[in-house]
Amino acid sequence: MEYIELKIEVATDYADILVAELADLHYEGFVETEQGLDAYVPVDHFSDAALLELSKKYQELFEMNYTSQTLEKQNWNETWEKNYDPVIVGDQCIVRATFHEIAQNYPYEILINPKMSFGTGHHATTTMMIAHQLEMDFERKTVLDMGCGTGILAIMAEKLKAASIDAVDIDDWSVENTIENVALNGCEKIKVQKGTVETAQLADTYDIILANINRNVLIHDLPFYDQHLANNGFLVMSGFYDVDTELIETTARKYNLDSINHKTQDSWYSIIFKKHSI
Question: Which of 59, 92, 95, 157 is the most exposed place for a label (fewest CB within 10 A)?
Fold first, then answer.
């Protein structure tokens, strides 16, 4: 089958929006790049008109520039094998596809469907979130993963012995992909649903909330995280730049959330907040 490769220049904060929209247009593969996003679609489903409509839809939110080219006929799985490398986090966790051969074993292993490489752990925010998780106590904890994407953080939570995990995302692609990866990893404690923190069927409180989204959504959702986070619970957030840290920490303090740890990588930032009783 022949594919069209789309190279999109877009701010990283909005790449996840494009993934959701392009998935509805039959795009089958996504790769994060320094410039934004590469996306792949069968030739029969490619439409410049659809891309123009998509650009117009979000023109007030972000600018989207792209180039396209037709790829030669090839074995799609072989293409992914050449371009999708395993990710090692802190020498404790490996994120890989089923076709990867590993030279050594790690305490934790997460399998992600290779045809959907967006959310495989390659992005700095995902890597930092997993690194935070590896340093925390998840055993017998209740967990909410907001904006679950591929389900990678929810899967990590179950492997760290969480009691139950709710994984929520706003778009169908993410929900379907999370369900697929949950099954691939043999997870049994993850409940996946479509929605937002306002519309999803959530538990009253959680011991840990994971949210790797973007600055504006995180700030908007902070009062809802406060509502659903147990006293002395932890909120782990990423998806924003280091320059946004002061704004996020200032807003979080309004909800009795104190920053207790952070990580930074490639100008991206992540924070662990702890909720204290008033």
Answer: 59
Residue for token digits 């179950």?
158
CA distance 127 to 203: 27
Residues shown for the chain: 278
Cross-strand bridge partners of residue 4: 41, 70
Residue 118 reports pLDDT greater than 60: no
Q: At what angle do helices 15-23 and 172-184 cross, to 10 degrees?
A: 90
Q: Which two tokens mark 240?
A: 């924003």
Q: Which residues contact 75 (CB under 8 A, 6 or more apart)?
A: none
Closest listed residue to residue 213, CA positions, set 142, 126, 155, 85: 126
pLDDT band at 193 (very low <50, low <70, confident <90, very high): very high
Q: Are 240 and 269 in contact (CB under 8 A)?
A: yes
Q: Token pair of 132, please?
A: 């935070």
Q: Which of 66, 33, 32 is nearest to 50 (CA)?
A: 66
**pLDDT tens digits, residue range 82-108?**
667 888 999 999 999 887 878 788 999
Say if residues 270 and 238 touch (Cβ distance below 8 Å).
yes
> Which domains does the chain show, CATH number per domain?
3-74 (3.30.70.120), 123-275 (3.40.50.150)
* The pLDDT of residue 173 is above 80: no
The DSSP 8-state label assigned to residue 239 in this structure reads: E
H/E stretch holding 272 reads strand 268-275
| pLDDT, tens digit (0-9, with 9 covering 90-100), for 231-257 | 999 999 998 888 899 999 999 999 999
